[in-house]
Amino acid sequence: MQQKPPPSGEPDPAAAHHTSTVEQGKFCTAHCTCGWRGPARRARSKARSDALEHASA
Predict the structure, then answer these.
(1) Alpha-carbon torsion angle 31, 11, 52, 42, nearest 10
(2) pLDDT band for position 8 (cuts 50, 70, 90)
(3) How far apart are CA 8 and CA 33, in angstroms?
(4) Torsions phi, psi for 51 (to 5 deg)
(5) Would the pTM count as exceeding 0.90?
(6) Half-sphere exposure (CA, 13 Å, Cβ side) for 29?
(7) Are 18 and 33 in contact (CB under 8 A)?
């Protein structure tokens, strides 16, 4: 079954948030395509969980 694209002018909720992590020296930060950035974390696992929490919110 194919899904219909959202009406023009409305963002596609499934494509709105694509997160990744970026390492900056000793810290790791979660980033999203919507412009959100998480706090700098020393643990990569915490940065990844920040990204998952953001994407599911």
Answers:
(1) 10
(2) low
(3) 20
(4) -65, -45
(5) no
(6) 10
(7) yes
